[in-house]
Design a protein that fits this description.
With 343 residues, the protein is an alpha/beta fold. Helices cover 37% and strands 16% of the residues. The radius of gyration is 22 Å and the shape is globular. The structure holds pyridoxal-5'-phosphate.
Length: 343
């Protein structure tokens, strides 16, 4: 794969903004280079634009070189940056599966890029050939999401790899829910696939949605481009500090994941007993997609009870379905009590 053939010419030509913290990175006695206020430490200082300390910790955690890791303001940032790096507005297109996470379409619309949607089959799986066949010379990105949102299932690994190996552009594999899945991450195989970008996040299993921290993993050439075009200080000091602190607690994260997977199993059984539940789809994530009679009626009833789920009943292949996040014991109990009161 030739990266220079896929990138937009203006991005190849771009001379990135050079901040004070880029020009001088070492320790010093006196910093008078960034027009910072000397008071109000430590918040007076600009953060490290490349988040070196945090990145080295995350790289160790993920067993991946720092040169293959990009940190963003949630996964949403690398999604947008990939469009800006590879897709010429009004000319290029991307392929996404249908249904999937809504941000790919939004980022495409903002960047004026056509989205070519390829439907999943009834088992919510992809057909690699129909994805490849839908592409043309202007197709720069294919977005895959596994486990997929809102369907909850993992895509088959060999199907993902077939797309990666046969598509001439970049394949973005969103693994936001990978910690909850039986299928393993493709991250250990990243070296084999120069056109693969893997997205992960601290928003789900790690319980840090509020601090906004997402990861993109890819070959160093792609990571350099993302670093070149991002806002210079995309990860603020508060986020970097809090993440450094919370990442030490990987065992806690693993406990949460175990507990949520157990609760998901229980919730699945309880929901299946309800007479108005048509189907609870198998889930590899921290939510369940549930097909019911009168999805919108149940959705509105739950809102009256101050319980909010996601109404996906007008989403392709999810007709009549609600997406329900697995909460803690009390939250799940309140939901089930409310639903049982409908019988
Ligand atoms: C929740 C979610 C994310 C997380 O996005 P952040 O910006 O990192 O919070 C990414 N992808 C999918 C498919 C999701 O459902």
């Amino acid at each position: 794969m030739e990266l220079s053939k896929l990138l937009r010419q203006n991005i190849i030509n771009l001379k990135p903004y050079s901040s004070a913290r880029d020009e001088y990175t070492g320790e010093a006695l006196v910093f008078l280079d960034a027009n910072e206020n000397p008071f109000n430490k430590p918040y007076n200082r600009y953060p490290d634009p490349l988040q070196r300390e945090l990145k080295s910790k995350i790289a160790a955690l993920k067993n991946t070189p720092e040169s293959q890791l990009f940190l963003g303001n949630g996964s949403d940032e690398p999604i947008d940056l990939l469009f800006r790096a590879f897709c010429e507005p009004g000319e290029d297109n991307i392929i996404s599966i249908n249904p999937t996470y809504g941000m790919y379409q939004v980022a495409a619309d903002i960047n004026n890029i056509q989205v070519r949607k390829v439907s999943l089959d009834e088992d919510f799986q992809i057909n690699p050939e129909s994805i490849i066949n839908k592409s043309d010379k202007n197709t720069k990105l294919v977005f895959l999401c596994s486990p997929n949102n809102p369907t909850g299932n993992s895509l088959k690994k060999d199907s993902i790899i077939r797309v990666v190996e046969n598509f001439d552009g970049i394949v973005v594999l969103d693994e936001a829910y990978i910690d909850f899945a039986i299928e393993k991450s493709l991250l250990p195989d990243l070296e084999k696939y120069p056109n693969l970008v893997i997205l992960q996040t601290f928003s789900k299993a790690w319980g840090m949605a509020g601090i906004r921290l997402g990861m993109a993993f890819a070959q160093p050439g792609i990571i350099s481009v993302l670093n070149k075009i991002k806002y210079p200080y995309n990860i603020n000091i508060l986020t970097q500090q809090k993440a450094l602190e919370l990442i030490n607690n990987e065992s806690k994260k693993n406990e949460w994941v175990q507990e949520l997977i157990e609760r998901r199993g229980k919730m699945e059984k309880e929901l299946a007993k309800l007479p108005f539940v048509v189907k609870v789809y198998p889930s590899d994530a921290n939510f369940l997609l549930v097909k019911v009679h009168d999805a919108t009626g149940i959705y509105n009833y739950l809102i009256e009870k101050k319980i909010i789920v996601r109404n996906r009943s007008r989403v392709h292949l999810c007709e009549g379905s609600l997406r329900i996040t697995i909460g803690n014991e009390k939250e799940n109990k309140l939901l089930l009590e409310a639903l049982n009161n409908l019988i």
